[in-house]
Amino acid sequence: MTPSTLPSKLYRPLAEVKSYVDKMPDGVKLAQLSSKVGTFGALNKRDKDKLIEFLKERESILVIQARAKFGKNLTTFLRHKKYGYPQEIPGYIYPPVTREQPKAVATIQPPTQEPAMEAVTLPNSPEALRKQAEQLLKAAEEAERARSDKDFMNKKLAPVKLEICQAAGQIQRKMDELIDATDILNKAVQKLKDLTA
To answer: How far apart are CA 38 and CA 61, in angstroms?
Structure first.
């Protein structure tokens, strides 16, 4: 769905929903939108679904689901993309475990280096011990260098990521202004039609 295929009656609710979600760093439950955003609450279910689908496809708003810790049903949350995906949602299982993804899979821990260390057998001769110690030191230095390189890259990428998010936010605000202006234009055209009818 593109802006040109979105019904004009959804322009105002779209702009207001995005404006509201933009101010909510922790996101907002879809169920709360009807009471918080009046124009969204006034829509019928089909129009609400169209609007949510449009938000999801445009990717300015993240539409995510989580399961309440003591519930069975999924809860839908809206969160602005500039805040990214949440690490966790208090009171909810996120991401939710689906039927195709058994709970056992979710609890598997990645293997650690400790079991490999337990398997190391110490050689008897001092020369072999020294050689093994040198190999371990070299491996530790390489691991430390790799971690340092990764940290350096993350520090370099952080400002670029911020610039991208800011640019995306700016584009989104301009798009909102365009939608608002289009809505005003549609209303003016309708008034003109009513006058000339």
So the answer is: 19
Q: What are phi and psi of 75, to 5 degrees?
A: -110, 135
CATH class of 1-98: mainly alpha
Q: Are 31 and 54 in contact (CB under 8 A)?
A: no
Whole-angstrom distance, CA of residue 166 vs CA of residue 192: 39
Token digits of residue 178: 């365009």
Residue-wise pLDDT for 121-144, tens only, equals 555 677 777 788 888 888 888 888
SS3 state at 29: strand
Q: What residue ranges do the domains of the chain occupy?
A: 1-98, 113-197
Instruction: Give the list of residues 6+ apart from residue 6 with CB closer than 8 angstroms, or none.
Output: 14, 50, 54
